[in-house]
Each structure stands twice: as C-alpha cells, then as structure tokens.
Amino acid sequence: MPFPIERPRRMRGNEKLRSFIRETRLDASKLVYPLFACPGTKVKQEISSMPGNHRWSVDLLVEECREAAGLDIPAVILFGIPEKKDEVGSGAYDAQGIVQQATRAIKKALPELMVITDVCLCEYTSHGHCGVVKEGRVENDPSLDLLARTALSQVEAGADIVAPSDMMDGRVGAVRHELDSHGHTQVPILAYSAKYASAFYGPFREAADSTPQFGDRKSYQMDPANAREALREIALDIEEGADIIMVKPALPYLDIINAARFEFNVPIAAYQVSGEFALIAAASERGWVDRDRIILESLTCIVRAGADIVLTYFAKDVARLLAR
Ligand code: PBG
C-alpha cells in the first residue's frame, strides 16, 4: 500500500502518538555507574579526560554512591587505584585492597545498591597488563588462578556481581569454580565477553593509571575487525557459566550487540566506555552538540540494538533526564 494510502508521517504528528508507538524506552533500572576508588580520605580528584568523573577515596565514594542510589540507579561498578603496584597485581586479591575496602563500605552504608566489581589485574600490575607476564608475554593459565582469587576476595567483601574484564581464555570457568567451591553459588558473573582492543579506552587508562608499560593488549583483547569471533567468545563464556555477557565498547559495536541479541538468550550488557564519554563531553563543552540529547540518543540506540543493561559514565545525567 504505497502513498497516498500509506503515510508513515501520520504516526509522527504529535508527541502523544510518537510516545504511543515508541519501540524502545530507557529507564534508570538498566544503568550501571562506573566509579574509581583510590586510597586516602577526602580525596575527590577529577580525571582530566573525563570531566565530571573522579577518583574517590572510600569515604567520598560512599557519598557519590548515595547520590546515585537516590537517583534510582541500581548498580555501580568499581575500579581500584591501589597504593602500590607489583609484578603479580597482589592489590587485586588483597582482602584489604582498595576495591575490597570500597565494597565493604558501600554495602554497609547502602545495602540496597548493587556493587559490581571489575575483575582484572591491569590496575594492580606494575607492567599494566591484565595477566601475569613472563619473558615479555602475557601468560594465560597462570593468570587464571589470580583472577579467580580476585573475584573470591571481592565477593567475600560483599560484591553482588563479579565482572571479569581481562579476556584470558577460560577465566569465566575459573571464577565460577572458585566461587562455587567456596559456597558462593548465587553470585552472578557478568562477563566482558566481546571486549575489543579499543582506542576508546584511552581516558580510562589515565583514570586507572593502567596503560601497559610495554606492548599493547592485542594478544588478549579482540580485533575490532571481527564479528563472528565475538559470537564464539560469547558462546564460550556462556558455556563456562556467564550469567550476563557484555559487549564493549558500545556505540561503535552496535552490530555485535544486535547479533548477540539474536543468537543468545542471556541478558546482554553494553559498556559505553571512557572514550565514548570523552567524545561527547568534549564536543558538548564546545557547544558543538547538544549534550542532553546526545546522551539520551546514544543510550537509546544501545538499548535498541539489544542491550538490557548499560554501563555509562553518564548514568547520573541519564537518571536525572529521565526523571524530569
Ligand atoms: C580493565 C578494564 C578497562 C576498561 C574496563 N576494564 C581498560 C582496558 O581494558 O584497557 C575500560 C573502560 C573504559 O574505557 O571506560 N581491563
């Protein structure tokens, strides 16, 4: 039924009609707010490439979480900047580590807020790689034990969900086994399954001081050119026990989110990463784009592609915009 019978504009004439037929809606219950914990007290240090985001000492981090919870954001994901780094990233699996301390403090003050912990070594290793390094190579299997210990110590500190982001082969299975054998069968794993070796992580590495000291992450993170391989990575993580899978970054990888949506029946998360944040923040600071509209549009598109959950540094902005 072509024109003049069919007139798609008929359904766009006013906001009531548009809202009536809208296919995708954002709501705050899908959001995860990423936060950086650092040592000290009363520390609130802005990350220069991520304006509005800070490294927080635990006392102030709890207050930031309180604000997020007050905006109906259901979850935060924590990254740690440790006092000191070493070859084997021992700060990652130390019961007194920065993320463990932060987790305990947040869960004590705000038991209803879900704490997700990023399971990785790169913020804690002196070389900045996500696994153990031997003779200049990032070793897979020796890293699994440390990652599993990291997840366990985070759960023992009160983490509600653990999120392995290292991209070692077999790490989801190793984490699941470690948690189960200590009785934590009910703690879900959010696996960074299709995590690409992306230039969009630049600002994060400034924030977490986790730039690799030699080489790059291409031997473990995925090649941006590959889509079928992402589906294989996701399938493996599901087999190993992932409860939620993640695609990262988000906006440049909507095809991957969408393919995963049709291929798998598990919940899908997408991470609008630091570089995606920085591009929007910088352009809107210059008045080149409309900040609020572009935040809502980018997140709507990520959800439209198939994400159930979105990790975003704009979480508070989105929650405020949606509440208006
Ligand atoms: C740790 C980790 C990274 C990010 C999340 N977890 C950095 C990296 O892989 O280099 C990036 C998040 C962001 O850019 O916002 N492996």
Brief descriptors of the model:
324 residues; single chain; 11 helices; 10-stranded mixed sheet; 18% strand; alpha/beta; 12 strands
Quickly describe the structure:
The chain has eleven helices and twelve strands. With 324 residues, the protein is of the alpha/beta class. Strands 1, 2, 3, 4, 5, 8, 9, 10, 11 and 12 form a ten-stranded mixed beta sheet that branches. The protein has a two-stranded antiparallel sheet with strand order 6-7.
Q: Can you characterise this structure?
A:
It is a single chain. This protein has 324 residues and is of the alpha/beta class. The chain is built from 11 helices and 12 strands. The chain has helices at residues 15-20, 58-70, 98-109, 141-156, 171-181, 202-208, 228-240, 254-263, 274-285, 291-305, 315-323, and strands spanning 31-38, 44-46, 54-57, 75-80, 114-119, 132-134, 137-139, 161-164, 190-195, 244-248, 268-272, 309-312. The strands form 2 sheets. Strands 1, 2, 3, 4, 5, 8, 9, 10, 11 and 12 form a 10-stranded mixed beta sheet that branches. A two-stranded antiparallel ribbon has the order 6-7. The longest helix has 16 residues, at 141-156. It is globular, with a radius of gyration of 20 Å. 46% of the residues are buried. Residues 118, 120, 122, 130, 165, 201, 204-205, 217, 273-274 line the site of ligand PBG.
Radius of gyration over all CA atoms, rounded: 20 Å
* Unreliable spans: none
What is the arithmetic mean of pLDDT?
Answer: 97
Question: Please, what is the oligomeric state?
Answer: single chain
* CATH domain class: Alpha Beta
CATH architecture tag: Alpha-Beta Barrel
Termini Cα gap:
40 Å
Strand content: 15-25%
CATH topology: TIM Barrel
CATH superfamily: Aldolase class I
- Helix-strand string: HEEEHEHEEEHEHEHHEHEHHEH
Structural class estimated from helices and strands = alpha/beta
| Extended strand count | 12
Annotation field: number of helices:
11
**C-alpha geometry:** globular
Ligand identities: ligand PBG
Relative helix content? 25-40%
Largest sheet: 10 strands, mixed
Count of domains: 1
